[in-house]
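3.2 Worked example (two chains)
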Amino acid sequence: MARDILEPVKETSDTSSDDSILQKQQEFALELQQERPVIEGALKNYISCLEANSFTGSGPSSSSKTLLTCAKITLKAMNSLDLPSSVEWGHKYPQETDESGSDYMERLARYKVVQNLWQQCRRSEGTRVAKCLGKTTLKIAMGEVEKAVHDYFESNTSDVSSEQLGQFLDGFMETVDNCAEGSDGELVWSVRWQDCLAKRQAARKVEAQERSDRAASAEDYADQLRSALTSTTAVVEELPSDA
């Protein structure tokens, strides 16, 4: 399927180079298609994360209705978005000051694969982008997705405020860039949510036990210090005044 929709990034008279470029694009396309969880699944994980953080007091409080509304707006905007061509995208996101020419061409090539797959999902009846593609796709198309979500919000009535949607969207996009161990991103983009959650809970129990042990050790030390000071005071008081 990938070979039917992908073309070399640039024309070249070198057939072997042409085939090499196409092969890399096909491999990347396959990687994107196989990536899990898909964006819609990650959004569901994200909502669960926010609700858990709200319950424990470790995050801002938002109602389930607000979170679901924000997620629906995000999905509707994303699934109805047509990504610009690689040429247009290249003009919108030009080569950065510290980016080499080869790195810039690689970034364009990767976007072209994403754009082709994205549009294929848009053209296929009953297929939605958020149900087919995952984190890497979202990371590459992030700027376009964020703009589409805000544009959709401005063009449609909603039960949430722009601030609520912005906070929801910003938080979700942050998980794309940060999936480090112990972060919300690790949970949001985990294929095995329950296993990841259990691992995190176990780590927190160990951490809590270590804090408790440190506190107990500190208290024992304080008791020993108080006892030593009391003994020293008693000895001093027993000394004759002309000693």
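3.2.1 Second chain
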Amino acid sequence: MKINIIASLLSSAAVVTGFSSHTLLNRKTTPISRMATADADDAGDDHITILGFGSLLSEKSSRTTFPTLKNFRLGRVLDHRRTFAHPASIFFQRNIANLETLEISSLSVEYKEGCSMVCSVFEVPNEGLSAADAPGDTFIPSQKFLEREEEFEITRVRYEELATSSTSGKQEIKEGVICRRSTDEAYIARWGQERFQKNYLDYGIKTIWGWTEGIRPCSVYLRHCILAAWSCDSEEKWSKDGIGGICYNSFLDDSYLVDRVTTIREYIDQYPEVMKTDPPDNLKERYSG
């Protein structure tokens, strides 16, 4: 039922939420009043704190990648912005990219002083995610982790826990692991020209990170991310002032196209059909928030 609500959010979400469809897409975030989970302990030596900003905004979706995660909650990444600015080879491999319309873009974060965005925060066992020879508390992603997120720079960034009604004062600044924008040169240096050829050039893609215009979000993936942001809270508890509304609105307003000007809220307003772009049958479970 939740998927049907979001898929038709331009016309029928008001039936469930009590808001008009216009209001649903144009609500602005208000201070959060509660969290779905209790405050989490800091990650120990045997766990890593992961920051999710797209499909990992829902616990359900996060568990498809990290089934043993714990302490799922919300935070805010500091001095970074979320952009649909690079193509993902996996979209071509899964036949959900549309090269004709350039709806081929995945999501990343990039450093931008003063920007911030709501993210998911959770801990996962450090089972092969960090290189065994990383000195001290330095995080160096393992080969396994790099393979999973091949085009990104996997690094630590600053974040703060999202304030709740039970917390007050300034939030402690912590660090978590995130997938950040990289460069074509870094990709080729790590994986080689042959892999770049196979994963990108053979699909007609000449650059991963060199786009400044034209590229648009992969519709199946964008729908997936919007569903995940909405699904941060349960359908029964969802409200514009709760964690569902906070996460959902941040995704719409703090995510940008490659021009770094157009927000996803504005893009969806222009292309509402995105929410009706169903994934192929074999990907429905993975790409449904």
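3.3 Remarks
The longest helix spans residues 219-230.
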